[in-house]
Design brief:
With 211 residues, the chain is mostly beta strands. It is 14% helix and 47% strand. The protein contains 3 helices and 11 strands. Strands 1-4-5-7-8-9-10-11 form an 8-stranded antiparallel beta barrel.
Length: 211
Amino acid sequence: MALFTRKRATATAADRTTTRRSTAVLDAAPALAALTGDYTIDPAHSRIGFTVRHAMVTNVRGAFGTHEGTLHLDGADPARSTASVDVTIASVDTGIADRDAHLRGSDFFDAEAFPLMTFRSTAAERVGDTAYRVTGDLTIKDVTRPLTIDLEYQGAATDVYGAERVGFEGSAEILRSDWGLTWNAALETGGVMVSDKVKLTFDISAVKAAA
């Protein structure tokens, strides 16, 4: 299911032939046109999580329990599809209350001063049969930097309540220091307490707005 197109600066004859074939298939797929519309992310069936290395030996996983967002999917011109997500920093949950309090504090997110983490897409492209790539601006605290998210389209369905849903799974890797999240502690055996690299994960279920 092609929700996003991929633009290339140059194309060979073979590329153009492949593109013509792909376009013909996409134009003939009624399910693609049916996906066009505005969607609201369903927080009860979505998850925005992260994984970070702890003490050089294991991973700590967490998630943000409160978030909201919208998607616009354009079946006629998929590259015009967009995404907007707001995440409430204070909702961070790693399963350990003291650790969560530390993350909310000034050493890390400073949730009181900067309550939201936001993502606003700027581009989208198809990179495989069900694989897509969305690029946008991620803002944490007072720092905005580009972020690219690789997504896998999971399908579309009408649920038992009649809501039209679409699903994606995705991931991205960032260096938290790029957003000013630099707190750390050195280990006696070498290395640091918290890795700079963080893996972000996205499990998204979005509901189409009524026509």
